[in-house]
Design brief:
By secondary structure, this protein is mainly α. The protein has two domains: 74 residues, lambda repressor-like DNA-binding domains (434 Repressor (Amino-terminal Domain)); 46 residues, no CATH class. 49% of the residues lie in helices and 12% in strands. The strands form two sheets. A two-stranded antiparallel ribbon has the order 1-2. Strands 3-4 form a two-stranded antiparallel ribbon. Strand 1 and strand 2 form a beta hairpin.
């Protein structure tokens, strides 16, 4: 049997969260680079707009720096674009109807039980009429 190469041995020992961390950092740095290019900016321009040194911004965009949410929010404000997007919480319902919390109207004699405003526990009955009401 062939010995795994160095890359495979390191990858096998790397924790999944570390792989995700590196991937997310690289994606963020790539997104910022795209936004800078679209604006015709350099890292120096971004540093000036953020009130930071060029070397600090360079470190941020290396893909290896552990950015804070505050730093990311500052870059989003200056670049006037989202860098991080948190998906809406969706609930898959029978008949493949997907609804979001914003669409749920609580009313008396509802067909579904709500455990809390953040947690839908069960749908006692969910017919086509209810699906159409929620989807509308």
């Amino acid at each position: 049997m062939k010995e795994p190469n160095v890359y495979d041995r390191i990858r096998a020992r790397t924790k999944p969260e570390t792989r995700r961390y590196v991937q997310k950092n690289a994606e963020l740095a790539s997104r910022v680079a795209q936004l800078l290019k679209a604006r015709g900016w350099t890292q120096k321009d971004l540093a000036r707009a953020l009130g930071k040194s060029e070397s600090e911004v360079s470190k941020w965009l290396s893909g290896l720096h552990n950015l804070t949410l505050k730093s990311i929010a500052k870059m989003e404000a200056v670049l006037e674009a989202d860098l991080l997007v948190v998906p809406d919480l969706e609930i898959e319902v029978s008949k493949t109807v997907s609804i979001t919390f914003e669409m749920i109207c609580l009313r008396e004699n509802s067909d579904f039980n709500i455990a809390s405003s953040q947690n839908i526990s069960t749908f006692e009955s969910f017919d086509d009429e209810a699906a159409q009401t929620i989807a509308a």
